[in-house]
Amino acid sequence: MMQMNFRVRKASDQDAEVIHELICDLENTRYPKDKFVELFIKNNKEKRIGYFVVQIAEQVVGFGSIYINELLHHCGKVCEIQELIISREYRGQNIGKALLHALIEWASMQGALHVEVTCNNSRIEAQQFYKANGFIATHKKLVYKHS
User: Fold this and answer.
1) Strand arrangement of the beta sheet that strand 7-10 belongs to
2) pLDDT tens profile 30-44
3) Is the pTM higher than 0.85?
């Protein structure tokens, strides 16, 4: 396998449209681009949210997001990864691992006690990826959806 030259960097507002495509791929749905871009730009200004991309040459091929919560039941800061996706053609080349470790490092710099991630039950490969990178299954998430 050929070694890829890539870099992980903070996302900029100019990345919003390509991140929209990545998130639509991740969730297997089409979100309205204008609303998505507006929300992305708003959130990207928040100090409690970290948005990162993986770039190869001039192309963004991955996205990860993480945010800080100050939780009473931990008596401190906990970061949660919300999204992490690498374009299909670049998976299996340690790019996701590098992005994950950038998110973990950001959390550490924010003073987080630990990092959490929630993974859909159907995403077996993603669950294996997180476990292979030091995450352990300690909780079960339950979701109530408004109709």
Assistant:
1) 7-10, 49-56, 59-71, 76-86, 114-117
2) 999 999 999 999 999
3) yes
Identify the CA nearest to 141 among candidates 100, 97, 82: 82
Spacing of C-alpha 6 from chain mean position:
17
Q: pLDDT per residue over 68-110, tens digit each?
A: 999 999 999 999 999 999 999 999 999 999 999 999 999 999 9
Task: Return mean pLDDT, the chain.
Answer: 94
- H runs (alpha helix) in the chain: 16-27, 33-44, 95-109, 124-132
Return the structure tokens found at 99. 């992005």
All domains of the chain, ordered by start, with CATH? Answer: 7-132 (3.40.630.30)
Rg (CA), the chain: 15
What DSSP state is assigned to residue 89?
Answer: G
> 26 and 86 in contact (C-beta within 8 Å)?
no
The set of residues, in sequence order, having a beta carbon less than 8 Å from that of 54 and lying 6+ positions away, is 6, 7, 8, 60, 61, 62, 63, 86, 90, 95, 98, 99
